[in-house]
Amino acid sequence: MDQTPDWLMEQPAACLILAAYAEREALLPRRAPKPVAADPAAPPAEEPPPMESDEPANEAENADSWIPRISSVDGIDPAVLSQLHGGLIARGYLKYELFGRQIGMRYRLTPDGRRAADSPIRPPQDAAAAEPAIVDAAA
Length: 139
Known about the structure:
Layout: H1 4-10, H2 12-26, E1 67-68, H3 78-90, E2 94-98, H4 100-103, E3 105-109, H5 111-118
Antiparallel strand pairs: 1-3, 2-3
């Protein structure tokens, strides 16, 4: 992800999208870690620290831990949102999953997306009023 921070600086609207997903993720219920069955024959070992899982144990049963696609963000032209979503996915900030016809497509920040949403890389105050640049997903 060598060029990604530069891309985010050039795409202030993408920062707004990351922030919107981060806000919605913060409202989701927290998943409890899945218990691991201990081997009774194994000697007691020091327990490693719990790892933050990026994936639910069974994604199809945990569609509620994913967010429906954000279809509008104040100050961003809805026609540009699709390009920006593609740019965020291509650069590893956002991932998506299809949960069948009833639920449909859902999105979630990747660990890099969470870090970027929390980072000091922020759009300028007037970024919402600025015209977003065309996203080149191949860059």
